[in-house]
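INPUT
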Amino acid sequence: MSIQEKQEVDILKSGSRAHMGERTFSDRLFRLFNFLFLGFVSVATLYPFWYICVGSISSMNHIYTSKILLWPDGFSLAAYRHVLNNPGIPRAFGNSIFIVIVGTALSMLLTTIGAYVLSKPYLPGRKYMTLFIVITMLFNGGLIPFYLTLRWLHLIDTIWVLIVPTAISTYNMILMRNFLMSVPSALEESAQMDGAGHFTTLFKIYIPLSKPVLATVTLFYAVGNWNAFFNAIVFLNKPDYQPIQVLLREVLVMNRADLLIFEDFRLNAPTEIVKMALVVVTILPIIMIYPFLQKYFVKGVMMGSIKG
Amino acid sequence: MVKANGSGKPRKSTVLRALRMHWELYLLFIPILLWYAVFCYVPMGGIIIAFKDFKVLRGIWESPWIGFGNFQRFISSPAFRATLGNTVIISLMNLAFVFPAPIIFSILLNEVQRTFLKRFIQTVSYLPHFISWTIAGGLFYMLLSPSSGAVNGVIELLGGQPINFMGSSKYFRWVLVLSSIWKGLGWGAIVYLAAIAGVDEELYEAATIDGAKRFAKIWNITIPSIMNVIVIMLILQVGNILNVNFEQVFILINDTVLGVGETIEYYIYRVGLFSTNNYSLGATVGLFKSVIGLVLILCTNALAKRLTDGGGIW
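OUTPUT
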């Protein structure tokens, strides 16, 4: 009996090996085309990034002579020097960094507290509280009433308009609540028997146990804050608190090359190249944390789609 | 037993007891409650300006009621047909081209046998998802530029004339479709790749023993096993037919392509905040879109739920 079983397993194994290494002509053809197709997709995905990197360090404005950039033409960091010395650009960067740090901290504070309270199955009224926040995912007042509300609160033209009104993402809060609900309640009970209050329970028991979900949600908020631009365009009229994304939009999309010009003409580099350097500098923080982003974002998507 | 005493009192005492027992948790929740009240429910109340002729100087309460006047104005204006048409056409193009792209991508990626290569392509494919629409839009403006863009470089190399993609009514919607695919392909594939990874390897092995070729395996094993996910995603997508990515349109649109690219949401922004500050009209169009969108989403969500709870699609 056991020998027979073993034989079956061997057959399956050889079968799986055959699946791995089919060598018929049509199969080779398929693999070739699949390889070419996926190669094309990868190149098309990466080329825009390559294009700006190569362009930003080219010494001459040679994109006008050969449009398809494959390799840098000469080498110059003039565009980067220009970007870093332009007073408007570091200010916009500073604003973005402030928004990411303060905004993400506030978001995490509110989201964790909300998720913790809503994760208590024994809390009377929990259903109504959850309903109260979930309704806002299905229906909202729309852009104009939202704008009028912010004006009524005197938040327009302050930096807080980019932080407070977007502090909570209901999706993130539900994601975190679902995770906290999976923490065994026995842990909480034993902590409370030892006289721990809710703050101690939350910080000593729940938070250490929920590191993956906390990392995911923190990254969701941080990337969201770094990439956000629409609220800043609509709710800020002065450039004082403008984040980098808004400056980028004005330079890249509205073609406001004048924003790149400042007194020190020695540093002057061709506009197109300066634009590329600005994009590279803005993408850099995202690229630097990309390995984490990839890992935790994918986790977040899976958690969301399972318990959605 | 306790309830027999009276109808109102015991309830009240339960509420009081709950408050007394869990006052810390309720106290913790107050900031959350306030945030939702101020930033979500106050704007919902603000929708009443859709039924008023709102004047900033007179305020919301003093502005006169005009009933459905704003709705009539919107529905009888040419903007109604134009923006609704653009929104639905762009959504249908997205359904036809953007929706299937990650499915095809994930099926083909699954056929790659070298794990390193598979993981590399997948990692690369996510990257555009993390880039803001400002940068994505800026990159498209650069690459599609008729005077300096690489895409027109290729067209000229092949002997064609440069095309002004961004300023052409003929191509603008295709720019939207293409940029959506570029930005969302790898990200959208995650769900499908996960579903494919869940397929029992023995099915493929058994099929191989039976002499099934690669296409037969894709057709008879891979596709049926992710069909549930495809149908659910499709239904949810249909529910969002009035929601074309606003940030994308906002970045890519310009005056020359307003006629083919202006969606309902962009129209709300334009008449409400950008060019005319007609708050009442903006709120009206917003309410119109929210209500129809809500009905669509509730219907499609219910359908999706029934299909998943019923233990399979068919």
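end of record. The two ends of chain B are 49 Å apart (CA to CA).
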